[in-house]
Amino acid sequence: MPTLVEWSGTRMLCAMPLFHAAGISIGLYGAIYFRWRIVLPFNTPISVSSVEQILDTNPVESAFLPPSILNDIAKTPASLEKLRRLQFVTTAGGPISRAAGDIINQYTPLKLSMGTTEGQLFATMPPNRNDWPYFCFARETGYSMRPESDGRFELVFERHAKFDLMQPIFVNFPGLDVWHTKDLYSQHPQNPLQWKFESRKDDLIVLSNGEKFQPSDAEDVIAGHPLVRAVCIVGTGMFQAAILVEPTPSAASSHSIDEMLRELWPVVQQCNLRLPSFAQVHRDYIRFVDEPLTRTAKGTLSRPGISQTFKFVIEDIYKQEHQPNQTLQTEVTTLQAIQQVILDAASDYIKPRPVGLNETFIEADFDSLTLLGMKRSIESRLGNNFKFELRHLYECGTLRQLADVIWDLLSQQDRQAGPGKPNRGTDLAPRMRKLLGKYQTQSQRPSPPKRVILTGSTGSVGAYLLDRLYAEDQIDEIWCLNRSQAHDKQVKSASEKGLKFDWGHRVKFLEAHLHLPSFGLADDDYELLLDKVDLIFRKT
What we know:
- By secondary structure, the protein is of the alpha/beta class.
- It contains 20 helices and 22 strands.
- α8 (216-223) crosses α10, α13 (335-347) crosses α16 (399-416) and α16 (399-416) packs antiparallel against α17 (428-443).
- The two termini are 49 Å apart.
């Protein structure tokens, strides 16, 4: 194993538990076969403090530390300085956040190990220092990378007689010829032989609407925040995702929940840019927990354990009624005050960029979940048991129009409350009729559409929309805009639902991001759509 040979002869602190495969491989096999001189920790739980004590009192040359400890060390300047004396640090058993790894790699080379209980450590070639998150698997292991969804690949091992000595998995399971690790990797953008671990296949979150997503990228970014010790995104079986956050001890003692949420929210907004709309996390669905998130023996987060231990916390996130927030409530006596309330509420549920009163919901890339969350935030800020129907949001094209409607609703509420209340506006009905008349007039078309755009075609509803549009003979072209290259996913979705998938030249697929200028499309494609398309189906 080239990497392990490269480390031979070093004096290594092995802080992985010796009842775990990683600890056994390094602490036992490494000492025998690679002449490592193993230093074991004190008879105390592993922590940043205990690692510091060992580094201060033992002349170790390298360290094998759990990912959770490295994540903590990256946020402790004094500990980072102590790493400078080491030749390298390695870890295994789970992912270390990219932010933490980049920091540690500045102080000492960070080298990752990969293996399984069934197959022991995998033989890998050492990458360049700047490519520390990547693995270069030895060809003699018989590995292959099989494509999965979203540009990820599953690591699979295939039996080859000439590689017997490098394939312990088939010694443990002699009846197998192929072994699926269920580990998902992404390929290096420049070096096709290097692979970065992303997540487990069973980490997939499946929402109640059937949409699926991998949470690991977003978790990695959030875990890099200085106030965060660990984070877990949940939501399987629910209508949207939520976040459980374990704050660092110092953050928990020096910050209130509102203060931590205020500092963390911009990072979550950045993560939402990377997630499909159905997976984005809204501010009301972030919960700071008082107890440590459940971990495995090797220190990595245990999703099944977290789901069980924090079952009631998770249930409370989803069943809670949105109670008025006393710290946010605003006394509104003018239309301008209402407009500001709506702008503030919108900032809780949209991407991290300014939004104007005259911007349409489509231009702002608002989806149904965003509108629902914004409705709750508005009601919370106005207080006094004020409620309005979700249809008012759908019937209003812009935040300014919504402010007008809410102003009228508040005026009606004042009049119903009795005398002495100021009349804040005119009746709602005439204004709503005017708005509806305006958009009904705009929506009338003299002839059937010939070329249409469909966004979000790969979802469970989008597949049926595409099938219905394709059945309309007068439609010559259908342009499907999705967040990723979606042709193969669309074919699979259609075939599973018994729908047509041999669309020929009439259906075209483009990768698009509606929050970007020109939807992130090439200039030629964008100009073509502007010139040719005469109807847009916006599936949110």
